[in-house]
Amino acid sequence: MSLSNFKARVILLLFLGTILLTSCQSNNNSLRLATTTSTYDSGLLDALLLDFESLFDAEVDVIAVGTGQAIALGESGDVDVILVHAPEREEAFVNAGHGTNRYDVMYNDFIIVGPISDPAGIAGMPTASEALSAIADTESTFASRGDDSGTHTKELSLWEASNLELPANGGWYKSLGQGMGDTLRFANETAAYTLTDRGTYLALRDNLPNLLLMVGGDSIADNQDSTLFNPYGIIPVNGEKGNINEELALEFINWLTSEKTQEVISGFGFESIGQPLFYPNSAEWNNSQ
Known about the structure:
The protein is of the alpha/beta class.
């Protein structure tokens, strides 16, 4: 081999090594977050993530899906951390070894919204059970997310707790397989009732002129139905699955549950809507109050 060819190969190897090092550094600074459509549709993530990315020189890749899909992504090791709202499924995820621990982040509540005409006459009813019974009795159109999300899981549990047989899809019961924002828009356009988290409804309310809040009261403090409580938890995916950025996932969790970030969560939505869309609930936040 000539000296010139040898030098060329050395330069090429150095160049490839630089690319590889840059790639590794990029991967170390990239976090894959699977979360619910409610945290995305409400605008909360947009309000929070820029601060984290700036502080940690990191990039957060957000996958906004239903809770069931987010959990499945965690089980397959395709994300580093999940932020969801289905406590029993979260506990099962950790117990099965897919995640290492669950951390409280925040909460809001579920509400039932419906058309201004209110054909089932549910406005002001104190519980979801009464409202669902009236909707079923009158066969008023009900839009279900039908997407294995935390909201869909809650809806199914409410039908069961009300001793009501889940209606067949295709008649007055519409199972959409859609996220919260799309389900609300469908309900608005078709004069349907639906179950939603309060935060997403309030964030989109100005674009939903045909929907009114029917069950749950004007604020979370007015909600008389304790079954509509909606806690969110965050779980780092078990590093044994391979290719999991455990270090950055824990940095993200520590940042999200810190008193400073929880303070931002506590005020999110207040200025534009008049009430918070989510309420902080981390251990650090609660200990500081």
